Every structure is written in C-alpha cells, then in structure tokens.
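Quick illustration, no need to memorize.
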Amino acid sequence: MNTLLINLTRFGDLLQSRAAIADLTLCGHRVALVCLENFAPAAELLPGTAHVAPLPSAALLSGLASEQGYPFPGYGQRPPPCKEWHKSLAALGTFRARLESAFPFERVCNLTPGIAAGLLTRYLAGTRPCSGFYVDEHGFGVNGNSWAAFFMGSCLERGLSPFNIADLFRKTAVGDLASGPGIASLHEPEKDVLDAVRERLRKEAPDDKCSFIALQLGASDDRRRWPVEYFAALGDIVRRRTGCLPLLLGSEAERPLAASYAAKAGHPHINLCGRTDLRELSAVLRLSELLVGNDTGTMHLAAGLGVPVLAVFLATAQPFDTGPYREDCCCLEPDLPCHPCRFGKNCPHGLQCRYALKPEFFASLIVSRLTEGRWVRPEDEAATGSAARIWVTGFDAQGFMDVHSLSGHENSSRAVRLTVLRRLIRAFLNDEDLDGEHDPALPRSAVNNLQDGEGAGLRAAKLLELLQQQAALALRQGGGAALARLPATWRKAHDALRSDPELAALALLFIQTTQCVQDSGAIRHELTGLVRSVERFSRLLNSYIRATARLT
C-alpha cells in the first residue's frame, strides 16, 4: 500500500520519525514523506522513503498575507481581508496534483499535531482513509487512535511525559503493530563527502593524528543552551586530558557563539559554524569520537548515525521524551527541584539550571567513555561543583525507549511517577488489564520521596465517580435531570485533570475516551458506552493515585 506520511515538524523531530517510517515499511507500506521545504535535505537522510514532497510553505503563507502588511492601520481593528488567498489555494492544488502524479498514494497518515496539519491532511486525502491527526468531513479534529490522543495531550502539557517522541510517532502511525525497539538509523554520509570532509579537517588540524570531539554550541531556545564559556572550559580540559580536538558545530546564526568560544578558549579548535551543509555535518559527526551538545536536531542526527552522545537538558527539556533514540547515550539534567520547568512560564530563579552543571563534570564522563568505552559516574561530584541527574538511554522489555540512572535518581519522586504513568498509560492505550493485581513492586527506597495522591488528581477521581453515577442513573431513567447534569460534571473532571501538571496530558485522552461512542441516535446506546469508558478511565486514574499514595 502506498502511504503518504505528513510530518511538518522541525529538523530534530523530523529525524525522529525514522522509526515510524521503518515500522510502516515492515508492515508492507511504500512511504512518501511530506515535510516543510526548508527541511527537505533532512528528509533525504531517512531510509525507507520512496518519495519526498517538500511543502512550499513560504509561498503558501505569502499568498495569505495582507497586502497592507502588519501591523495594519487602526490598531485594535480587524486586519483588511486577504486579496491573494486564491493564489495560495491554486499553489496547494498544484502541489497535490504533482504529488498524486509522482506517488499515487492510497492513504494518508499525519504525525503533526495541530489543526493546520489536520486540514492539510484532509485536503490531500480527499476521500482516501486517514490516520494520525486529521479533520473529519465536518471539519472537526480527529485523533486517529488512543495513542494519537495521548500524543496530542503530551504536546500541550509535557510535565510528566513518559514516552519518547519517536515511540509516539510509531504508535500514532501503526498502533499495536509497532513492537520491539524502533529502527532509527539514518543514511550514512556518501564516501566522497566523507573523504572531502576528512581531508578538510586534516588541513585545519594542528597535527595529522588528532581525533575529534564535536561540540554543538547552540539550541533553539537560549534557556536550553549550556553557557558557551562552559563549552570553552570543557574544550580546554578534554584537549589536555585526551588530545581530542574540539570541532564547533552550528548554523550561520550561531557564529557569534563560536567567536565567544574562541575568545575564552586556550586550546586549538576548528570552527565549523555556518560552514557545513547537512551532508557535510553528517560526515563531521561520523568522523568524531562523540558529540557534546544541547537538546537539538544535531543530537538526533548524531544518534541516528551511531555516534555516542553526551547531551544536556535544561529548562523545559527532559531526556524522557526528547532524548536521543539510541542505546548508550548519556543525558544530563541539573538536580534542581524546579527542573524541568513548565512551558510558557518565566523562570523565577534566574535560569540557574543553565549554570548548575560544570565543565569538569562533563569532562569526567567524556574521559570514561573514550578510555573505558562506557559512561562512569564521577567519583567526587562535589569536587566538580555539580549536582546532576545522569541518565543512560536504552530500550525496555516492550521495545520502548527508556533511560536508567547512573546517579541514583531512579527512586526520585519524578522518576517513580514517570515509571508508574508509563506502565499504566501503556496498558490503558493497549487495552490491557488495569486492575493492578500484577503491578511490579515499586522501590522501597522511594517510599519517603513521593507526595500523596491528594489534590487535583483525587478531585478528578471523585468527579469521575460522580459522572459514572449520573450516567448510570440517566440510563435507568431514560434521560431526565441526571442526563442534564452530565456535561457540567464531565467538564469539571476534565478541568481537574488539566489543572494538575502531572496529569494534564491525560485530559485530552479523557476527551478521546469518553467521546469514542459512535452517534447511533439511541441515547441508551450512547449512555452505555459512556458508563463503560468513564469506568475504564477511572481505573487508570485510581491505579495511579493508589500506586503513588502508598509510597508516602
């Protein structure tokens, strides 16, 4: 079957869809990929794509822009109507016609949460089947399966997000057919590119025999960027202890970071910021001993090429959901009670997480990886001035990306709650048993680290119990006052879930679960479905509350 896969995300997330493409291919699909035009070179790195269709997003948006520009005259008034919209519609029609000619697809799967991508999916699909995220014939948003609903919710609230985005892509695309660890390997650099980059590095290096360590200085958000002066200090230590020559990686926009590095560093290095295209960047990484960097697309590129990664996760970033999809990568977080912070919130602590992890700590991990072939926790963390959570990536028994701790943080409150949520949500979405009789024992050493189950979660559980009672009463009475109360109780339960940072990702899943009954025109049938779905969701929530409350 020819499947059109849509992924309109940025560089790193686009690379993370590799495992979903591999799963579709293993299920017998030929896959064409629609991506944003500026990331088309990245799409060429993804094995298993029979065709790449870059979406001309800039041209489409320019046709929708007001002729008078923005801001428009008369602040506070509505902008003037767009007079060029028909050009965008024509361009989109041309794009669809060319796509259908180049790749006659039979179904469309969209991995991009959001209404715009859902509308595009429906437009391109026409009457063809859709999956993932799309809109129905009436324009209402649809999550193709329960995993997609959870994925959408976790994009909105990622405070406790227990699944790597690559696994969420896989489950959204193929559901239960995804089993075992995902295949995330990318195309290797071409030999001629690799040879040219090797020769280029040889000419710029101070000697012919030195090995290289890659440093990714930038990040998409400055709050998630390790300080450049720390990178420079790390380069000094690594150069002195291992002889490796630092290679500075980044885009043209990150040249100032490289200049700042050069001003602070006391060692030779090669500045490649703004001096490599994507194929050359792949070759540079392949020629490096390892990559040190922030949570970026370059991190995912290195992981896909099999290059060891030491990555730092600051501010909102966390390795559980956006970490490198490869075994034996090392992920660092500052061991601060406020980390990770919530999206859209100003930091009240002066961004102290950026400065919490010191260069000496990084250097100790790098030396152990280069000399012993494994990540070794620094013996004296106090001497390095760092309090860090150290996680090493791997896959669990079900084939999902997971992390294990080198620093004893597997029993922390956050880690245990993530473990509980991971187990329960996976069982719920896979329609497995949720009665808790076969729950694995939780770590006794974590008993004093967790808060109790009071708060929004408990309020939501009580409201769900009330919702079940009202639905059951309405079922017995054939409607009446109990039926009239259902919407208000439903909304209160949803709002209680949404108000809790730990459970907010479940709010959209609650909507999906309780609205999955097909409209049959028979109120009795719909109420019966509601009772069953609320009962099942209640078991999920109550299992979580019991599992965490008994650890207090």
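DSSP finds 21 helices and 14 strands in the chain.
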